[in-house]
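Tokens in:
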């Protein structure tokens, strides 16, 4: 009898424990469903999950997409988790706060953040005030309009990508790539972007191994691409059109192994490409200048083409036994 009572007690105890565990698990599932929603919506008129972008970010779990409906959102945004922030469209989804001096409208302080389809400007004063400040690596900005702020985007990190974005009305730079002895600013990619009516389109400061490709720079009040100070090394500028800037098309200072490839650079008031005297091993390849939409090659390319034509002609003449042509061929140093 005692043994049966003991078995009954164990059986009932097991049932109670199982019920408690199931209850805890059910509660955990409900909590998870409440905080891990993968798409959150924002509308400042109230027809969404949130009226504030920052409140949506604070409530989101990593991996969430936050969809912002069109309207003006004069709020400073801080992103410290992996999210996607998407506007309804870049014409009418507007982030336009006035931050403190030398601060930002949006801070990206996390990796793997994507921002797209937004219109961003910061009404604050200060030379270093930015539309977006990026302090962590592996982030993306796509299809945005960034304007009328001292700096459009300040990048203090590596492996970020900026694409299909327009920068205009930036009193200092459209994009500033900033490295130092303490942190690197490398392997960033800027592609298919347009820079106009800024001071500099892009400025590099101690930033190496970055790629600027298929971008357009025009009517900037200083320089299209300005690599100032030193240690802006191994950067590649390719397939860009850079014209009608007030000072230089490209200026590179005290750096090495930069490449300018297949670019059209013309009508920049104080020089299309300017290197200072402390450079070494920089390469210009397939550089073209254009005037009145008719291509005119620079002197280096013209000389190279003429040399190749002359060399080919002399080789053909030498084959038919003209001794003078053969002597000329041997005497010319290519």
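Residues out:
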């Amino acid at each position: 009898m005692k043994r049966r009572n003991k078995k009954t007690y164990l059986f009932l105890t097991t049932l109670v424990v199982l019920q408690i565990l199931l209850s805890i698990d059910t509660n955990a599932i409900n909590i998870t469903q409440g905080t891990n929603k993968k798409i959150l919506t924002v509308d400042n008129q109230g027809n969404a999950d949130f009226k504030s972008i920052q409140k949506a970010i604070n409530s989101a779990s990593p991996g969430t997409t936050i969809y912002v409906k069109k309207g003006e959102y004069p709020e400073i945004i801080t992103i410290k988790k992996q999210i996607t922030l998407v506007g309804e469209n870049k014409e009418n989804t507007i982030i336009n706060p006035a931050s403190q001096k030398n601060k930002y409208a949006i801070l990206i302080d996390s990796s793997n953040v994507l921002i797209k389809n937004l219109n961003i400007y910061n009404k604050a004063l200060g030379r270093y005030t930015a539309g977006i400040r990026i302090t962590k690596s592996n982030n993306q900005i796509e299809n945005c309009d960034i304007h009328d702020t001292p700096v459009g985007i300040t990048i203090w990190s590596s492996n970020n990508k900026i694409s299909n974005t327009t920068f205009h009305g930036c009193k200092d730079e459209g994009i500033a790539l900033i490295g130092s002895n303490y942190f690197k600013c490398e392997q960033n990619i800027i592609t298919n972007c347009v820079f106009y009516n800024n001071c500099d389109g892009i400025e590099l400061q101690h930033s190496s191994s970055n790629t600027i490709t298929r971008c357009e720079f025009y009517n900037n009040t200083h320089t299209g691409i300005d690599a100032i100070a030193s240690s802006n090394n191994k950067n590649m500028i390719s397939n860009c059109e850079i014209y009608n800037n007030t000072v230089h098309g490209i200026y590179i200072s005290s750096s090495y192994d930069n490449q300018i490839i297949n670019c059209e650079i013309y009508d920049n008031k104080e020089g299309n490409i300017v290197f200072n005297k402390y450079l070494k091993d920089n390469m210009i390849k397939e550089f073209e200048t254009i005037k009145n939409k008719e291509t005119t090659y620079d002197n280096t390319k013209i000389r190279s083409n003429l040399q190749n034509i002359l060399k080919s002609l002399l080789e053909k003449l030498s084959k038919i036994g003209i001794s003078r042509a053969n002597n000329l061929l041997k005497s010319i140093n290519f």
